[in-house]
Amino acid sequence: MSNTETHPAEVRCGAGEEGAPAAGVEILTARDVPLGGPRAMTVRRTLPQRARTLIGAWCFADHYGPDEVSRSGGMDVAPHPHIGLQTVSWLFSGEIEHRDSVGSHALVRPGEVNLMTGGHGISHSEVSTPDTTVLHGVQLWVALPSEHRDTAPAFQHHVPAPVALDGGEARVFLGSLAGDTSPVGTFTPLLGAEVTLAPGATVTLDVDPGFEHGVLVDSGDVRLDGTVVRPAELAYAAPGRRTLALTNAASGAARLVVLGGPPFPEEIVMWWNFVGRTHDEIAAARADWENEAERFGRVEGYPGDRLPAPALPNATLSPRRNPRP
């Protein structure tokens, strides 16, 4: 998904600290961001923000829906570029048609993960299908480490099998959890999973103590280690935990997405749809997109123009660092 803000901020994201002891749960609230257009979908963005800019290598999290397409017009994001990252698409309902400049033409469906590697440069489009009545899901980005950020663009698709939990169910789309491991390749250790909880259930998940974790609640009255996490909120748990205790105190089922990874050891600069290391690198990528450079290729089959790049900011913002756990 594109970051379609008209005036996207440039964000310098600092490295976290490895080996820190477990601390309390931090709650990150979302801000509403319209995707653009006369009947714009609105997404709820929890990463990046001032309180926290990364969870592991996860650097961007949009949560949207349930959105009635008859009212919003659905999703129609024209071809746009990416560098230095991987995009992770995960749906709860609806269907999105994906086309990219490496020739991929695929559908994003509920319970199926699509991962696209931007690397040196890729472009893609995303359009909800005509049969979609309710669109609901998350769009996530992963920052690539320096040694891999110029890797060749690529696309992967995987359908994780549901894993039964005592009081719930998990679908592991990246990394390992609850005895299941995703075959989808990433460039840093990561965890990504959808977890559903039965009414009144508590599920305790064994996790890597070297990871920091995020719990994004979609629905239900969820508690993470006793801390209330409301729908659309993202709870942050520092490294040091060997388990995550998730409780659904609601009378209906709860659904959430668990993210994780070791603290990212590099400072990155995010602007629009680019993840780089310097302002000059971002400016060069923007110029390449505007000049239709070969690095971004072409998206075939989209019935319209590609997205123009916004204007660059007049000044580089000061570095933002994650607070110490």
From TrEMBL:
This is Pirin family protein. Pfam families: Pirin, Pirin_C. Residues 300-325 are annotated as: Disordered. Its cofactor is Fe cation. Binds 1 Fe cation per subunit. Residues 42-142 form the Pirin N-terminal domain. The keyword Metal-binding applies. Belongs to the pirin family. One of its GO terms (molecular function) is metal ion binding. Keywords: Iron, Metal-binding. InterPro entries: Pirin (IPR012093), Pirin_C_dom (IPR008778), Pirin_N_dom (IPR003829), RmlC-like_jellyroll (IPR014710), RmlC_Cupin_sf (IPR011051). Fe cation binds at H80, H82, H124, E126. SUPFAM superfamilies: RmlC-like cupins. The keyword Translocase does not apply. Residues 193-292 form the Pirin C-terminal domain.
